Amino acid sequence: MSEMKEMRNENDGVISYELQEFKLFEPLFKWARKKSLWIVAFCTGCGGIEMPPLATARYDFERFGIMPNPAPRMGDLFLITGYVTPKTLKRIIITYEMMQDPKYILAHGSCPINGGVYWDSYNVVKQLDKYIPIDVAIAGCMPRAEAVMDGIMEIMRKIEDGTADGWKRYRENYEYYRKNQDELFGEGWREKDARRWLAWI
Amino acid sequence: MDMNEKKVEEKVENAQPVEETRPELPDTKEGRLVREIVEKAPYAEGSVRRERRVEFRVPAERIHEFLELASEKFEMLMQISTVDWLKEKEFELVYQLWSVSEGIHAFVRTRIPRDDAKLPTVMDIWPVAETYEREAHEFFGIIFEGNPRLGPFILEPREYEKHPLRKDFNTIGYVKVIYGEDFDRYDESKTNYVI
Q1: What are phi and psi of B107, to 5 degrees?
Q2: Cystine design at A45: which of A9, A83, B39, B45 (Cβ 3.0–4.6 Å)?
Q3: pTM, 2 dp
């Protein structure tokens, strides 16, 4: 009993993401993650229209192992494809928290960065990075399919060298993100709203 | 056939002298339709905007009566849009009607004061009006008497209370309160707003 206590004290404040036993294979895992990004099919705003050219023959993101799938539990890459309203943001946060680690967020266009053309709108979230961590943001209104492809290459590069660490930041700074979310939605929004869609939360 | 007879009767009943102030109504199907409706409803002003597009101006207290009359020709209510005329202290409601039989799009305009924005509902004529009236109620605070589902609709509750599409709604102040202060867009000298 006392040994267990000591062990727990040893690990206080340390969050380890990789199993130490498999540290040798970590480059292989990273390569595998980079080559099998599954997209959560969650389209907001105008970027959803930019997805079909990417998925079809000309740009064909499936050759990079990217595949749209409907279940957040199986997703790795979350595309925020345009402006985000507070109502959508609630769904985005819940979906993001349902995804398994490691998970990455790619934000399209200028709206998630600073509001874009909706900079003075009462109903568009101005800085998405305050509420959920973004790994790569593509500027533009709306970025062309080449730019989105470039963003995807960028996130693959960042996965390989380990700098796509949004999911780690979300764990470590959960209080910060939670505080911002509660400021926007009001305390207890998960209990009030999210439980209506997802009974188990 | 029945309808035609009724029209003839009403025409005979409403045998008031129709003022001939609108000789500009063209002799097209739009012009004939407008003339027919305006003869039945002399309180309304009708005009033809262009091909397949007509316009009516109706005083607010007789809007329900007019729309009931117009619904004989205009089977569909397409939209209720609202314009906020801040200086004139009025809301302008535009009922957009579509006539399937004639292929004509009509705008029925009416004005109500901003302070006491109340109108009768038209749900009894077109049930679809419920949604449009809820929307106008939420964004502008217009009360449609008789609509049972007025209340928070699309927006968050705190925005519903403010009616954010009114022209006197301080958007920038609201954005600063809700989303933080650091999103202002200044010019290079940091003194004026760019937009």
Answers
A1: -105, 125
A2: A83
A3: 0.79
Q: Is the pLDDT of residue B182 over 70?
A: no
- Which residues are registered as beta bridge partners of B110? B93
Q: What is the DSSP pairing of strand A38-40 with strand B104-113?
A: unpaired
Residues B59 and B112 in one domain: yes
B108 plus B176 within the same structural domain? no
Residues of A in contact with B175 (CB under 8 A): 120-122, 126
State whether B156 and A122 contact (CB < 8 Å): no
pLDDT of residue B110 exceeding 90: yes
What tens digit of pLDDT does each residue of A119-160 get? 888 888 888 888 999 999 999 888 888 899 999 999 999 999
Among the residues of chain B, which ranges form H helices? 2-13, 29-40, 63-70, 129-140, 157-160, 171-179
CATH value at residue B18: 3.30.460.80
A49 located within any domain: yes
The residues near A133 (Cβ < 8 Å, ≥ 6 apart) are: A105, A166, A167, A169, A170, A177
Question: Does B47 share its domain with B102?
Answer: yes
Which residues of chain B lie closer than 8 angstroms to A120, CB-CB?
171-172, 175, 195
Kindly state whether residue A47 falls inside one of the protein's structural domains.
Answer: yes
Report whether B132 contacts B77 (CB < 8 A): yes
Q: Which tens digits make up the pLDDT trace of A99-109?
A: 988 899 999 98
Provide the number of structural domains found in chain A.
1
A119 contacts chain B (CB < 8 A):
yes
A122–B contact, CB cutoff 8 A? yes
Average pLDDT of the residues of chain B: 83
Q: Are B109 and B177 in a shared domain? A: no
Q: How many domains does chain B divide into?
A: 2
The Cα of A126 is separated from the nearest Cα of chain B by a number of Å equal to 7
Q: Does A130 touch chain B if contact means CB atoms closer than 8 Å?
A: yes
Q: What is the CATH number of the domain that holds A180?
A: 3.40.50.12280
Domain with B175, as residue range(s), is 167-195
A120 closest CB neighbour out of B156, B159, B172: B172
- Residue A125: its chain B contacts at CB < 8 A? 179
Contacts of A127 in chain B (CB under 8 A): 179-180, 183
